[in-house]
Amino acid sequence: MHSQVQYLPITPGLFSVLVLLFAGLIILIQLRILRYAYMRLGVGPGVALLLLFGSLVGSYFNIPVTVLPGKAVRSGEIVDFFGMRYVVPLVTQWPGTVLAVNVGGAVIPTLMSSYLVLRYQLWLKAAIAVIAIAFVIHMMATPVQGVGIAVPVFAPVVVTAILAFLLSREYAAPLAYIGGSMGTLIGADLLNLDKIGNLGAPVASIGGAGTFDGIFLTGILAVLLAGIASPARPREVW
């Protein structure tokens, strides 16, 4: 069963789009066009690329947590939602809905967000950003049969960047990353755990199918938007 829990959260074609986006960011970083945006986040270009690459590769891996009893699961399908195509993995002899944590969409963003909060001591402002964005995402989140909880991909991006910018011009970039990633995880996945068991999803991955694309794009693009708008005050990077 463990091997069947590992799968790409979206179709190979759409995943290739994210890979192309990643390749474009590599070019921009190498040309130093995005240098100050990432310096405002508190990481260097090398760490930024490692963060992006880890999120993409880590999206394939899920860490099983528990099994939720529920109705018969769907298997081996492609589900369309707001223009995105999510993968329902092909499974056999399945006991119910496996609740898992996605490495690229949950573990890495949580670790990075924790680092940013601790480094810049953004306890109050980060909490406000996460709560506000979680509320917005929760209003947008939709239970999707066979997949779990899904959210529209692009709508939260601008909201995240604007809110982070309003909370702190100086720390808009880290607040955008924290609010965008943690707000999506909490608003879409954690606040809807009670609905997952009835969706017939073989795997309900926190930060995986249904939310990974939103977390990846919201976290990264919101950082870029906020970084461009924030003051040109380079920070020490690692």
From TrEMBL:
Membrane-spanning segments: 6-29, 41-61, 94-115, 122-141, 147-167, 174-191, 203-229
Keyword terms of this UniProt record: Membrane, Transmembrane, Transmembrane helix
The keyword Amino-acid biosynthesis is assigned to this record: no
Full protein name: Membrane protein
Protein source organism: Bradyrhizobium iriomotense
